[in-house]
Amino acid sequence: MPAPVVAAPATPAPYVTPPASGSLPPPTRVEAAPIAWKPVIGVKAGDRPLLVWIGDASRDAAAEHRAFDDTDVRLAARAFRVVRITPAAAAADPLLAPHAARAPVAVVFSPGLDRASDLDGPLLDPRAVLGSLDAAAAAYERLDLRASVARARTILSERAGLERDRAALAAVAPTDPTLPTRRAAIDERVAALDRELSALFSPRA
User: Fold this and answer.
1) 14 vs 114: CA distance, rounded Å
2) Cα separation, 99 vs 107, whole angstroms
3) In whole angstroms, what is the distance from residue 188 CA to residue 7 CA?
4) Mean pLDDT over residues 148-166, rounded?
5) Confidence of residue 10 (pLDDT cuts 50, 70, 90)
6) How far apart are CA 154 and CA 152, in angstroms?
7) Res 13 pLDDT > 80
8) What is the pLDDT of residue 168?
């Protein structure tokens, strides 16, 4: 008599914490604009901490992508001055020379450039970069960067919805008397969200 066939146990689905009663689940995908690096040949003190990327545009593209093409990192970087410099130019700058030999490397400076921490090699990943940015924002700007990033994600999600609503208005008959009011409401809310987003990453007094 053949042995009975026993079905393999089903792979359990990953557990997802259900949202609180009356709330919606968080957005699953939010996009933030890439970091707006400013090309430089040296660094200067300023009123905000400085994030410096020392790397070759072509040779170190993969490392740059791995470290910075992350929504939370892109948002967190808004609390900093952000510059990029080639390893050769960095080697000629007295403040960057000690770091240039380890390029590609990310260096986070205090506003006055008197303190620095760097991340290279296996530490060039979003988690490590976020940790370094979080510590610098707390120390030099009194910012809870992780809370700011979380709120920014919510803002971007709402803003994306408003943009979809705005696009949908293109299908509304131009003679609809509610059209101007609806457009104005969307524009006003988008402007308010943009102001809040900017304020989230400004230094606290």
Assistant:
1) 46
2) 8
3) 58
4) 96
5) very low
6) 5
7) no
8) 95
Strands in 68-186 per DSSP E: 81-85, 105-109, 116-120
And the tokens for 15?
């557990």
Could you tell me the maximum CA-CA distance found in the chain, to the nearest angstrom?
83
SS3 state at 155: helix
Dist CA 57 CA 133 (whole Å):
22
Please write the tens of the pLDDT for every residue from 108-139.
999 999 999 999 999 999 999 999 999 999 99
Interatomic CA distance for residues 61 and 199, integer angstroms: 31
Tell me if residue 54 falls in helix, strand or coil: strand
Backbone torsions φ then ψ of 148, nearest 5 degrees = -65, -40
Closest by CA to 126, choosing from 45, 72, 166, 164, is 72
Task: State which amino acid sits at residue 55.
Answer: G
**Helix, strand, coil share (%) of the chain residues, nearest 5:** 45, 10, 45
The whole-angstrom separation of Cα 89 and Cα 96 is: 9
Q: According to the model, what pLDDT value does residue 29 have? A: 65
d(CA 175, CA 152): 36
Q: For residue 179, give the 3-state DSSP assignment.
A: helix
